[in-house]
Amino acid sequence: MAAEAKKIASIAGKLSGMFPKGTEMAMYGGVTGAKPEIWSKSGAFKAAADKLVSLAMNLEKAAMAPGTDQKTIGAAFGPVGKNGCGGCHTTFRQKLK
């Protein structure tokens, strides 16, 4: 679990650079779910990616702690999905059909 959380944090740290202008849905419909808000609210997009990094690092730390149990990992994992991934996808990603 710790290794996977570390991967999530690593990818999240690269997110803000993974969507150069011109990669939005209007240009690549059906391929990308990138909403224009990525560029019009770039500061908020970067903040959302940074939040995911922080939450993933918390998950990694929880998973690495001696004697960690499933409840502790679950408590750290929930926010990664809800506030990390979900916090970005809700605003900056259109669901592909």
Helices and strands, in N-to-C order?
HHHH
- What is the count of helical runs? 4
- Radius of gyration (CA) equals 15 Å
How much of the polypeptide forms β-strand, as a percent range?
A: under 5%
- Mean of the pLDDT scores? 90
Total count of strands: 0
Please give the alpha-carbon distance between the first and last residues.
31 Å
Spans of 5+ residues with little confidence (pLDDT < 50)?
Answer: none
Fraction of residues in helices? 55-70%
- Helix and strand content put the structural class at mainly alpha
Profile the largest sheet: none
So what's the overall shape? elongated
Helices and strands, with pairings:
Blueprint: H1 2-14, H2 37-40, H3 42-64, H4 70-92
Helix pairs in contact: 1-3, 3-4
Summary tags:
elongated; mainly alpha; 0% strand; single chain; 97 residues
Give a quick summary of the entry:
With 97 residues, the protein is mainly α.
Describe this structure in words.
There is one protein chain. 21% of the residues are buried. The mean pLDDT is 90. With 97 residues, the protein is mainly alpha-helical. Helix 1 packs antiparallel against helix 3. It is 65% helix and 0% strand.
